[in-house]
Give the backbone structure.
Amino acid sequence: MTERFQYDNRIVKNFLFITILWGLVGMLVGLIAALQLVVPALNFSEWTTFGRLRPLHTNAVIFAFVGNAIFAGAYYSLQRLLKTRMFSDVLSKIHFWGWQLIIVSAAITLPLGMTTGKEYAELEWPIDIAITMVWVVFGINMFGTILQRRERHLYVAIWFYIATWVTVAMLHIVNSIELPISMTKSYSWYAGVQDALVQWWYGHNAVAFFLTTPFLGLMYYFLPKAANRPVYSYRLSIIHFWSLIFLYIWAGPHHLLYSALPEWAQSLGVVFSVMLIAPSWGGMLNGLLTLRGAWDRVREDPVLKFFVVAVTCYGMSTLEGPLLSIKFINAITHFTDWIVAHVHIGGIGWNGFMTFGMVYWMVPRLFGTKLYSTKLANVHFWLGTLGIIFYAIPLYFAGFFQSLMWKQFTPDGFLVYKNFLDTLLEIQYAYWLRAIGGSIYLIGAFVMVYNVVKTVKSGKLIANEDAEAAPLEKVKVTGGHWHTWIERRPIQMLVFSLIAVAIGGIIEMVPTFLVESNVPTISSVKPYTPLELHGRDIYVREGCYTCHSQMIRPFRSETERYGEYAKAGEFVYDHPFQWGSKRTGPDLLRIGGKYPNSWHYYHMWDPTSMSPGSLMPAYSHMFENLLDTTTTRKKIEAMLTLGVPYEEAPYSEGFAARANEHLQAQSIAIVEDLKKAGIETMPDREIIAMIAYLQRVGTDIKAKPNATAQAAR
C-alpha cells in the first residue's frame, strides 16, 4: 500500500533563482576587485576600496552563491531520497528569507567597514547570531524531514549533508566567540597565535565543510541522476565519507607553516593534509567512474560536461592542497598569487561548475519543460572553461616567479629585488589576464541566465509535485553490512560525525591554549596605547590584511627585506590577529619606526608619491573623518575583560577613565612632529591614529621603541 504526497518545488526554485542572482553579484564584485589591482583609480570611494570589496566578494561567493546552491540542491534531493515532503513549509520559508537577510546585511556592513577582520568570518556579531539561528532552522527542517522519511536507508548524499550541518555549526560557534563593544564592533575572544589557530581551523574547514562536503553530497545525487547510472562503488563512498570528515579537521595549521604557531601543531597540519589525498581522490574517482558506459553522452550533454570538469577540478585542488602543505613547497607558494589560483580552481571550477550543472538539470524538471537551448549551454560550458584557464594559469606562473624574485640574492649576498614593488610590477600581466578570465567566466554566466529565462517562460512551475511511496515499516532488521546499522539511524550518524570532526580540533587547540610554553611571553611587549588601538581598528576596518601580512617567516630572504622574524609572544594583545594570507603589498610587521610620520601621512594620501607605481588605493577619507573617541573607554574596558593588562605598568589602575587624555597627548605629539615636516593637520583625525598604529607595529622587541609612542607613554 502506498501513500500519496507532494514534493515542495517552490522552495527549491527560490533557492535556485537566488543562487543565480547572487552568483552574478559575487562574480561582478570579484571582477571589480581584480581590476582594482591593475587600475587603482577604480578604488573610487571610501566604501569601494579593494580592502572592503574583497571580503564582500568572498562572502558573496561563498555564502550567497555557493550557500544558496547547497540549499537548493539539498532541498531538491532530500525530498526525493527520503520519499517525503520537507518537514515544514514554514521553516523552509524562514530559512530562505533569513539567509537572504543575512546576505543583504553582509552586503551593507562590509563596504561600510563593519568587519571583524578575520578571513571568511568578517561579519560582525549580530549577523553571526542570525547565521546561527537560521542554521538551526535549517537543521530542524532537515532532521525533521529525515525522521519522517519513507525510505529506511540514508543514501550517501545525506551522510554528507548531516556532517556538513553539525561541523559548520561547531566551526561557526567556536570561531565567532567575540566581545561586543557596540552593535557594529567587537573583538575576538582569542588573541595572536591562539586566534590564528582557531581562525584557520575554521577557515580551512569552512572550505572543507561548506565548499566541499555538501557539494560531494550533491555530486553523489546529481551525477548518477544525470548519467542515469548507479554510483560506482558503495564501499568506496563509505571509506570516502568517514576518512574525509575525520582527516579534514586536522589540516588547518597548514595555512600557518613557518609562522609563530608551535612547530608540533604545524607538523600535525602537514601530516593530516598529505593523508587527505587518499579520501579526496577516492571521492573524485568514485564520481568519474560512475560515468562508466556513459562517456558518449558526455560529448553531447552539457550537464555532464559541467559535472565532469567540476569533479576534475575537485581532484586537482584536493591534490594541490596537500602538496602545498609540504613545507618546502609551502615556502615557495605561501603569500603568493599561486594560492589565489589554487583557491579559484576549487571555487569557480568545483563549486561553480557543479552549480551550473545543477541549474541546467533542475530548471527544466521544476518547470515541466525542456532546456531552451543545449547549444547555449555548451557555449556557457566553453566560456566557463576558458575563463578558468585564463584566470588560473597566469596566476600559477606569477606566483612561482613572484616567490623566486622575493628569494633571489646577488653573488655578494644582497637581495636583487630589495623593493617589494619591483616584484609586483613584474607580474601585472597576470593580473590583467586574470581580469580577462573573470570577464569571460562572467559572460558565460549571463548566457546561462538568458537560457534559464527562456526555459522558464516555456514551462510552468510545478510548485507541488505529486509523488507516492510505501510508508516506512517499523520492523527490526538484522544482518547486512556493518554500515547498514548507522545508515538507518540519523541521530547516531549525527553524533558519530560530531565526534569524528571534534577530535582533531580538540587535540590541536587545547594544548595551545593551556600550555604556556606554546606562547612564551616577552616582557618588552606592552598593550597598544589608546590611540594605537584606534589606529589598529581602522587598519582592520580598511581590510589591510587582504594585501599585507604581519608575519615574517624565518627565511633569510624575509629577514633581510623586513627585519627580525616573528615571535609568538609579540601577538598576545592582538584581538584579532592580522597575519594575513596574501602579499599584494610588503609585510608590515616591522614597519614601525622604519619611516618618519610624514612618510606615512603622504603615503596614505597618495601612495604613488612615496612608492611610484604603487597599486595601493588612496585613503583620503582618513584625513577628513573625525576619530570617534566616544568609544575609547569601552574599547579599553573590553581589552581589560580579555586580559590585556591596562592597569599595570606602563599604565595604571583606572586607566580606562583616563584613556582619552592619553590619546590626546599622543595625537598632539604626532601632529607636532608632522608640523616640523611642513604638514598642518588636526589631532582629531583618523589619519593620526593610523600613523600611531603603523609606527608601533613590531617595535616591542626592538631595543629602542618608537620615540613618539614612548614619549606619549
In short: The longest helix spans residues 374-407. Strands lie at 3-8, 178-182, 185-188, 464-469. Confidence is low (pLDDT under 50) at residues 703-713. The chain is about 65% helix and 5% strand.
